[in-house]
Each structure stands twice: as structure tokens, then as C-alpha cells.
Design a protein that fits this description.
Helix content is 67%, strand content 0%. By secondary structure, it is mainly α.
Length: 103
């Protein structure tokens, strides 16, 4: 099987997508992007090495906003930004793979 070469921007976006989704596994993100889970795992390890940390803690889930409307709105805005980022990464991946399949 031939090795696929991915652009550095795609690799960085894939790692960012994994780190932005606290409850998801590497395998789930890799499946969403259509890449091998071990490939994504290696990209994450390389990124950890660049950061100088053996393990990089993933962001914790957003705590319950309680009764505060302002806190709830802030949490919802953060979630919207996260979803927009994920959507943009998936769009880039789709464009990349669409270009790869053209003759």
C-alpha cells in the first residue's frame, strides 16, 4: 500500500480538531477525517514533542453554567466557535480529498 502524503496544514488541523473535542477518541476523529487512527496518533505525538511535553492534557468539558444566563451564553458561544472550527477543518479535508481523486 502506498503511503499518502498530507500537507502540514491538514496535519495541524487534524491535531487541533482532536484537541478541541474533549470526549472523543483518536479513532473517532480519524474516521471523521478518513485517515488511519495510527497516522493521527503519530501526528499528535509529533506535536506533543514540539510543545516539549510528553503528554498534553486535553481541555476539560465545560462545567455546568448553573443559573447564570451570562455564563450559559458564554459556554454556548465557546461551543459554537468549536463547532465552526470543526466544520471548517472537515471542509478543508473534503476539498483536499476531492482534489486527490481528480485525474
Amino acid at each position: 500500500m502506498a503511503m499518502k502524503h498530507y500537507p502540514p496544514e491538514f496535519k495541524a488541523d487534524a491535531v487541533a480538531l482532536y484537541r478541541s473535542r474533549p470526549g472523543v477518541t483518536i479513532a473517532q476523529v480519524a474516521a471523521d477525517l478518513g485517515i488511519n487512527a495510527e497516522t493521527l496518533r503519530n501526528w499528535i505525538r509529533i506535536d506533543d514533542g514540539r510543545r516539549g511535553a510528553a503528554t498534553t492534557p486535553r481541555p476539560a468539558s465545560t462545567p455546568a453554567a448553573g443559573d447564570s444566563v451570562e455564563a450559559e451564553n458564554a459556554a454556548l458561544r465557546r461551543r459554537v466557535r468549536e463547532l465552526e472550527e470543526e466544520r471548517d477543518i472537515l471542509r478543508k479535508a473534503a476539498r483536499y480529498f476531492a482534489g486527490e481523486t481528480r485525474w
